[in-house]
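BACKBONE GEOMETRY TOKENS:
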Amino acid sequence: MRSSPSRLLVFKKCAEKLRIECKKSLWLDVATRWNSTYLMLEVAEKFEKVFVRLGQSEPRYMSYFLKVDSKGNKKNIGPPSLEDWENTRTLLKVFKDLLHGYIEIFWLIAYYIKFFLQRIDLHEYKLIAIV
């Protein structure tokens, strides 16, 4: 969701009315951060009811989803549908499983490196310490 002070205020008021308790704020995906999409979707999913309510009650919110093509024709492309939210939940599960596996592999590799370093004779490898 693109932010402006007025849009953010409407969004926050709607979240309060729906009693959504989430301390995190919405943010946009950052192409250079590997976990950015996951974090963006994780927070957005917590506010799903807010997006649905705004889609039902806020004409200004709906106008955000008008896309104008090169000929000037307007087309409504959103807000997120129920199918979009189901796809989001599926994608979050996949991300979470991959992240969990990545962390397990990382710690396993770190353990073996530590295990190896504790058992080798460093003089044998002629390592030079930089002071």
In short: The CA atoms of residues 41 and 88 lie 7 Å apart. The two ends are 50 Å apart (CA to CA). Residues 82-119 form the longest helix (38 residues).
